[in-house]
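Ops channel
N.P.: pipeline sanity check, posting one input/output pair.
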């Protein structure tokens, strides 16, 4: 049965999509059956996985709003991961689900239909604390919080922690914070080093993953090429962090 993990942070640009995709591929490399769920209307995870979001006839939107079976929507890419894709249609879902019954549990229904088929289900949340993110947290067992090594990212994390506490209290008592994943770390700057140290001080009750993802233009290039970071011609500082995190998740499962 799958471990269901949401990757969330209300601040954009902290590496949620990059982390979701490359962690998913790293898990597949070690023999895990992986499903990725794109819950961002921008469709970044869908594009990174090798698909053009606006060319898709059906997406996770149809599962949420029209009760389409997720198996009718699912895609598989050449790196061995399955995907429930998204595009701009998903932006309509929050409005259309406002009065729907069990609106916070639509993702839970999808997960329950598929979790026996996978070892890991990774949910890429949009940079928002709206209904789609609440759905992801209600369905997940754990949350990984990618936090860029910048002060403003730390501030955004506090708001997410408050939402996680509310979801745990009202919708999903089993929800746990798996850890904070430091991203976009630049060892050359004092600010980067101080922010990384501050993460442990600000959130002492939360596991801080030692697998630090270093800042590198290669991540943006890999997304543009629709290839995982491991396909880069040269070793990428920080890329191995996702493989190390994958191994840790498998050990703890």
């Amino acid at each position: 049965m799958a471990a269901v993990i949401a990757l969330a942070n209300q601040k954009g640009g902290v590496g949620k999509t990059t982390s979701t995709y490359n962690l998913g591929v790293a898990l597949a490399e070690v023999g895990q059956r992986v499903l990725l769920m794109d819950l961002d209307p921008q469709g970044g995870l869908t594009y990174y996985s090798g698909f053009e979001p606006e060319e898709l006839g059906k997406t996770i939107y149809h599962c949420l709003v029209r009760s389409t079976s997720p198996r009718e929507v699912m895609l598989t890419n050449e790196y061995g991961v399955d995907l429930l894709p998204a595009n701009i249609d998903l932006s309509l879902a929050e409005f259309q689900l406002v009065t729907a019954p069990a609106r916070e549990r639509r993702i839970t229904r999808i997960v329950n239909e598929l979790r026996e088929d996978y070892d890991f289900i990774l949910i890429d949340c949009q940079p928002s604390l709206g209904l789609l993110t609440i759905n992801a947290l209600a369905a997940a067992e754990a949350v990984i919080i990618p936090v860029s090594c910048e002060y403003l990212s730390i501030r955004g994390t506090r708001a997410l922690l408050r939402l996680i506490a509310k979801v745990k209290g009202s919708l999903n008592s089993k929800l746990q914070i798996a850890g904070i994943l430091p991203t976009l770390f630049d060892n050359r700057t004092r600010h980067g080093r101080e922010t990384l140290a501050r993460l442990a001080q600000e959130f002492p009750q939360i596991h801080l993953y030692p697998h630090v993802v270093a800042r590198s233009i290669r991540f943006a290039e890999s997304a543009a090429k629709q290839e995982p970071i491991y396909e880069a011609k040269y070793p990428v500082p920080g890329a191995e962090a996702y493989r190390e995190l994958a191994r840790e998740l498998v050990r703890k499962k």
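N.P.: looks fine end to end. The CA atoms of residues 77 and 93 lie 26 Å apart.
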